[in-house]
């Protein structure tokens, strides 16, 4: 959520050349785990219902694209090395851009530069 406004601007600027999707995965900084003082109050997900409920917090912030939820076995997060967060660009079902792991490597501006070359 830290760079959500930057992500939303990316979606807005490039919706004519790309479809965007957020995959909500396990909570990296849960209140009952490794939390920061300024975190949103989300406990570690014990069930799919917990994860769906937590994802609703993101949906309410209107990310301007669909939000889907990873299964409790964390299949998408494991397959894409997405923990705690990561940006990807896929084209014709293949990864053409893989951002560095967040939070330090989560860089919407780098994705912007990549997508500008696709225009």
Automatic annotation (TrEMBL):
Catalytic activity: 3-iodo-L-thyronine + iodide + A + H(+) = 3,3'-diiodo-L-thyronine + AH2; 3,3'-diiodo-L-thyronine sulfate + iodide + A + H(+) = 3,3',5-triiodo-L-thyronine sulfate + AH2; 3,3'-diiodothyronamine + iodide + A + H(+) = 3,3',5'-triiodothyronamine + AH2; 3,3'-diiodo-L-thyronine sulfate + iodide + A + H(+) = 3,3',5'-triiodo-L-thyronine sulfate + AH2
Name assigned to this protein: Iodothyronine deiodinase
Cited InterPro entries: Iodothyronine_deiodinase
Entry's family note: Belongs to the iodothyronine deiodinase family.
Function comment: Responsible for the deiodination of T4 (3,5,3',5'-tetraiodothyronine).
Gene Ontology biological process: hormone biosynthetic process; thyroid hormone catabolic process
Keywords: Oxidoreductase, Selenocysteine, Thyroid hormones biosynthesis
Pfam family name, one: T4_deiodinase
Xref: PANTHER family: IODOTHYRONINE DEIODINASE, TYPE I IODOTHYRONINE DEIODINASE
């Amino acid at each position: 959520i830290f760079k959500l406004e930057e992500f939303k601007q990316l979606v807005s600027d490039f919706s004519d050349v790309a479809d965007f999707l957020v995959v909500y995965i396990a909570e990296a900084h849960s209140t009952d785990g490794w939390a920061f003082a300024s975190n949103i109050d989300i406990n570690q997900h014990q069930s799919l219902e917990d994860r769906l409920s937590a994802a609703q917090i993101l949906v309410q912030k209107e990310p301007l694209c669909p939000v889907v939820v990873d299964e409790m076995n964390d299949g998408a997060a494991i397959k894409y090395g997405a923990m705690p967060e990561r940006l990807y660009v896929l084209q014709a079902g293949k990864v053409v851009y893989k951002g560095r792991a967040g939070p330090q490597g989560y860089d919407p501006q780098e994705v912007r530069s990549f997508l500008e070359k696709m225009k």
